[in-house]
Design brief:
single chain; alpha+beta; Immunoglobulin-like; 2 domains; six-stranded mixed β-sheet; five-stranded mixed β-sheet; 2 helices
């Protein structure tokens, strides 16, 4: 009759399978947690603080930038830009795009609508829909039109008041930019946006 396997032979089989023991697993987990905790305290000055190795900036935040023909500006949609033109000045904001409700399957292009607001105007700031243009992520240029049924904005932004109007175009999904060139030539301000239909 064959002899029962010894305790040593079972231990040998466990080692041969490559499975770590429970004690070794717990020890490894404790060591990893301690190392992670040490890394966190070494790079952060306080909970939720920025890592100490990141550069510090001295540029003030939440400021309104000024754009003119010599210094065009890039902004994100919804952010106002102080536009300084030869004949006047205005705070220009573009918001959007607003798109139709989602349908399945999603179309490759949608009607995108932007709301342009001019506020705190001084002097003469012309409003011409032809001064606005759109670029999609492939660099294709699109000229928007006034939203159907909407009254045309005044030819000149009202001084000391606010005027808003909507422009629209059919755009592919993805990133794009809205340009405004009220002085002719190159855009003075450009807003970045994303068209999403999902």
């Amino acid at each position: 009759m064959p002899a029962a396997p010894s305790a040593g032979s079972g231990e040998t089989r466990r080692r041969a399978t490559g499975r770590p023991s429970l004690v070794a697993s717990v020890a490894a987990a404790v060591a990893l947690a301690a190392a992670a905790a040490g890394c966190g305290t070494a790079t952060h000055s306080a909970y939720g603080g920025l890592p100490s190795f990141l550069p510090r900036t001295t540029v003030p935040v939440d400021r309104v930038v000024t754009a003119d023909t010599a210094h065009p500006q890039l902004a994100v949609q919804g952010v106002g830009v102080d536009v300084d033109l030869p004949g006047g000045r205005t705070l220009a904001t573009a918001a959007g795009p607003a798109v139709p409700p989602f349908v399945a399957p999603p179309p490759p292009a949608v009607t995108a609508t932007f709301t342009v607001t001019l506020a705190r105007t001084a002097g003469t700031v012309p409003i011409r829909i032809g001064d606005f243009s759109l670029s999609d992520q492939l660099g294709r240029l699109v000229h928007p039109s006034l939203v159907a049924g909407e009254s045309a904005p005044p030819a000149v932004a009202p001084v000391g008041s606010t005027v808003s109007f909507q422009i629209t175009a059919v755009l592919p999904t993805g990133e794009g930019t809205l340009h405004w060139a009220p002085a002719g030539g190159q855009p003075v301000v450009t807003w970045d946006f994303v068209v999403e239909n999902d």
